[in-house]
Amino acid sequence: MQEPTKIEGDFGNIIEYFVRMLAIQKRRNFPLHNFSFEYISHTYVKNADNNEEIESVDFPDKENVDRVTRLLFTVKGEKLSFDFEVRWTELVANFKDGEIDLESFTELIDQSTFRFF
């Protein structure tokens, strides 16, 4: 099994973009550039006092973006399929079929956030 590909950085704009888009549009499947995204789940802090995290398949709440700690998608493209995890400081791709440069993929997503904000 292939090791996950990870990059670290500040991905707050990406997580905020996806949370707000999912909360407003409530679509599990959506296109982005030449890729098809399927929303799987998100993890959020339920109780800040003890950092209790809950995973949910429901759509995230746009009013509580700061409580979301992780978003999980399945991404598909031509001869490509991978699980994509978005966190505030890390992006993780678990490639099933094919592989792409995660930095370039992130730049494409970042372009979408510029239109949103």
Structure description:
It is a single chain. With 117 residues, this protein is of the alpha+beta class. The protein has one domain. Helix content is 25%, strand content 44%. It has helices spanning 12-25, 102-116; strands spanning 5-8, 29-32, 35-47, 52-56, 68-77, 80-86, 90-97. Strands 1, 2, 3, 4, 5, 6 and 7 form a seven-stranded antiparallel β-sheet that branches. The protein starts with a strand and ends with a helix. The relative contact order is 0.25.
CA radius of gyration is: 14 Å
**Could you estimate the helical fraction of the residues in percent?**
10-25%
The parts where pLDDT drops under 50 for at least 5 residues are none
* N-to-C series of helices and strands: EHEEEEEEH
Q: Which SSEs are present, and which pair or pack?
A:
Layout: E1 5-8, H1 12-25, E2 29-32, E3 35-47, E4 52-56, E5 68-77, E6 80-86, E7 90-97, H2 102-116
Antiparallel strand pairs: 1-7, 2-3, 3-4, 3-5, 5-6, 6-7
